[in-house]
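Re-run with default settings, no changes from the original entry. Doing this only to confirm the output is reproducible before filing.
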Amino acid sequence: MAAVEAQLMLSVGLIEKDTNGDALWVWCYPSVSAELRELLLRKCCLTAENKLIHTFVFGQFRRTWYYISTVGGQDAAALKKVTHFSIVLTAKDFNPEKYAAFSRVLCRMYIKHGSPVRMMESYIAVLTKGVCQSDENGSFLIRDYDVRKAYLAGSIKDVVSQFGIETIILYTALMLKKRIVVHHPRIEALQEFTRALPALVWHRKDWSILHPYVHLNDNELHSLKVCTGYVAGFTDPEVSSRSDLYDVYVNLQDSEITVLPHAKEAMTMGKLHKDVGQLIIQSAEDPERSDSQVIKDISVKTREILTSLASLAETTENENSKITLEMLQQRRFPPATENFLYHLAAAEQMLKI
């Protein structure tokens, strides 16, 4: 298992900021494309004008996840002209805790030795054995970081305590694979909030929809726009005027959710939404229930909806079950429910056009 897990790792890199204030990509193993390198320099907090150091950021670009740990190098005897440095890991999987832990070990090694050689040795050890051990710098075991833990690390209870019954808007948008943009000036707040959202549609277990840290950069926006539905986080307030990027806009700082006019028809709320919304509130506000239990409660309700949707479908010999608008109309559902089920069938690829 550890070997399979290790094969998800793609590269390790090093960015340094020197006493002249220049941030440079100084080393990488095995390699990173020029396009990704440019992006990683933008994401690491050493090149930005702002003076805030973000100890850990993560995100994805074209299905490659990146994890960046940044520390000060001033106290390290081995790093004479380096004020700060960032260790950058790229991988195929979403697992912030795993890569944060591994990059911390690598940071300590670099501070101690001032050479990437030890980091490369540790990286290869994890790649081949799933573990790197060192007495003074701490050890890292890949098998300690199950992906399910990463999926459950975001807090749905926090989302509900902030947005209350409006959480149903987020649930509906996710179910229908809509484009959600979240804005907050603090990257840490963005990452914490956005990573929890895919758990509202647990039946998909799809964190590839998550883009927690996007800049208003043509290259990044282009790769975002080719995705069908997503949760994208921006620290730049300008994103609010980019209505071409979203169906639902979340102003996280002011706890406001806006549904754009073009998405309102598909997102019309009815009795079904009210029932689901109340279930989410009751479960999340129960102090006895953990986040994973809340996710399970929502997931059970979602399964009920999907099962009843599937039961309407007709199965032909050579095709999976499909639903038509006529079938939904025959059931005489309330208009908002019929509308939601129709769009949900489309999102779940159960619709016969």
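The chain has a mean pLDDT of 92. Residues 109 and 118 are 7 Å apart (CA to CA).
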